[in-house]
Amino acid sequence: MENHSDILIVGAGILGLSHAYAAARRGLKVRVFERSATPLGASVRNFGQALVTGQPPGQMLELAKASREIWGRWAQLAGLPLKRNGSYLFARTEAEEHLLEAFCEGRAVEHGYRVELLRGTALRNLYGGRFSHHRAALHGLDDQQLYSREAIPALIDYLRRDLGVAFHFSTLVRDVEPGRVRSTAGSFTGEQIIVCSGHDYQTLLADSIAALKPQICRLQMLRARPQANLDLQHALLTGLSCVHYGAFADLPQAQAVRAQILRETPHLHEQGIHLLISPTPHGELIIGDSHHYGSDPSPFNAEQVDDWMIELAEQTLGCKVQVVERWQGVYGAQGPAPFSFLQAAPGVHAALMHTGVGMSVGPAMAERNLGTLLGEH
Ligand SMILES: Cc1cc2nc3c(=O)[nH]c(=O)nc-3n(C[C@H](O)[C@H](O)[C@H](O)COP(=O)(O)OP(=O)(O)OC[C@H]3O[C@@H](n4cnc5c(N)ncnc54)[C@H](O)[C@@H]3O)c2cc1C
């Protein structure tokens, strides 16, 4: 019975780790399998923005708020770096400013988004006036910033050390069936199996996952050194993100923002570029991103796309940046809902994201899934 667990989890990305935490904190015996020696999927390639402000009202907003609390707890327990100062979303144009005004006056009040709109002196006082070439800044007070490539390993250490979760790295799970996982490290039994395999739709539960018709999204990403002393402590976004994020995208004022992007910078729309900038704990910036959807990620990064993102970042920051690293990220996209928790067989489930906000909602989503599995509600 040594190899028997209550919960077997495939994948040590944020979804796998969130489910492991939700199960282990309930006192269950948990085992996690990860095919690489350390997680290398979407969960370490991202911006590490745990955003509440961008989520559409309803379940995503509620999950993001609940996830915020969990990240706060993890930061303390696991000692992972977490900035809790919020985000700034800059309006560059009149249309973007009108959209932020409408959001603050309407939806934010109605649904309890904690935001403030900075203009005039407040905007000029921000970072010594560095961002005063914008028309306004939406301060999302509940937004958080992680450094994922350090946070994910810190979370693994905590789960192993304090909650007794067993990890098997460099271990591919080849097959799952009710009560059993077959892996390159042998066969393991468990009461429940949760597959959190990210955008790998072919190795496990392929038929059940195919029925969801999921796609992938590939993104070009950069890490850069600002050529000025920024000491940035907030996640940054611009009005470009408003046409992508559900908190804003369906407001009537978003139409003018969309029309202006199509008219003046159609290449940004074609490449799915919207600027996000995340400070790392080491004074550098993660800059992105572009969005290309399909069934498989093309390996070929376009230099022009990086150039456009760098140009946008330098405009926003008001300084040059020096690129030190480039990579591609891929996440699960375009399923039937923002995420799925599907039962493929008795005691065999898959937890998948279909939109690029797993860091923002994953921790609370896992709590909900565990509650469902254990019949808590
Ligand atoms: C570039 C980029 C930027 C993003 N920015 C943000 C952001 O700022 N904020 C936000 O909220 N979200 C962001 N996201 C989205 C977020 O990162 C994802 O939604 C989330 O990481 C998905 O987590 P996951 O655990 O499902 O997948 P992954 O992190 O990909 O983990 C899946 C893991 O399963 C393992 N695996 C798969 N199959 C097997 C198998 N058969 N056996 C063993 N192991 C297996 C893989 O090796 C992998 O480690 C971004 C994503 C990308 C790519």
Largest sheet: 9 strands, mixed
Q: If helices are DSSP runs of H or I spanning 4 or more residues, what is the number of helices?
A: 12
Radius of gyration from CA coordinates: 21 Å
Count of discrete domains? 2
CATH architecture of the largest domain: 2-Layer Sandwich
State the CATH topology of the largest domain.
Answer: D-Amino Acid Oxidase, Chain A, domain 2
**Ligands in the structure?**
flavin-adenine dinucleotide
Secondary structure class reads: alpha+beta
CATH class of the largest domain: Alpha Beta
Low-confidence stretches: none
Tell me roughly what share of residues is in helical segments.
Answer: 25-40%
Question: Would you kindly provide a brief summary of this structure?
Answer:
This protein is α+β, with helices and mostly antiparallel strands and 377 residues long.
